[in-house]
Specification:
It is a single chain. The chain is 37% helix and 24% strand. β2 (68-73), α5 (76-85) and β3 (90-93) form a beta-alpha-beta unit. The protein is of the alpha/beta class and 204 residues long. The chain contains eight helices and seven strands.
Amino acid sequence: MTKDTTLFLGQWLRSPGTVGAVAPSSQRLAEMVTTPVPQRGDPVIVELGPGTGAFTAEIQRRLNGRGHHLAVEINPALASFLSARHPKVDVVVDDAARLPELLRERDLGNADVIVSGLPWAAFSADTQTRLLDAVVAVMSPHSAFTTFAYSFAKRMRPAQRFRQRLHDTFEEVVVGRTVWGNLPPAFVYYARRPRVLGTTGPGA
């Protein structure tokens, strides 16, 4: 096992409800999830539940020193690992539901892209709603939200509930192709145009 996988598995055994996976995401899944990260400008990129940094590394590669990359990780051990590996990333140990406050504290306004590695299917309906409300609160009409789900779980009630919640929350929800090489196979949700606009930007 790699160091990433060993740490990830250990944290999953300690807290499966918050880690939500037994291994880091594949490079291919990371590439697909981070597709909306813009190639120009100084965007604000938010990453929720980065874990050991599979998506973090790809975001950093795409940014190439531009913008502000905020990673919100509730697990202190994973956050410490991430900070050491990616010192240019603004890693904070906190609840993703506090995202609007975290951006205000940094005078960042709205996020251009929000990339989520959170285990949505492991959350209750109330937690899904609370976290999605936080996401929408920091979005503008031009922001993008991406997350992924495991193919084996898509017919389970929590996964179906989350999918419906996405369609209720965003005007546009696109489902990407299955990444069969991921462990386990996964697919990406691309969501844009929140029905309720963010309120953390200038003048809010």
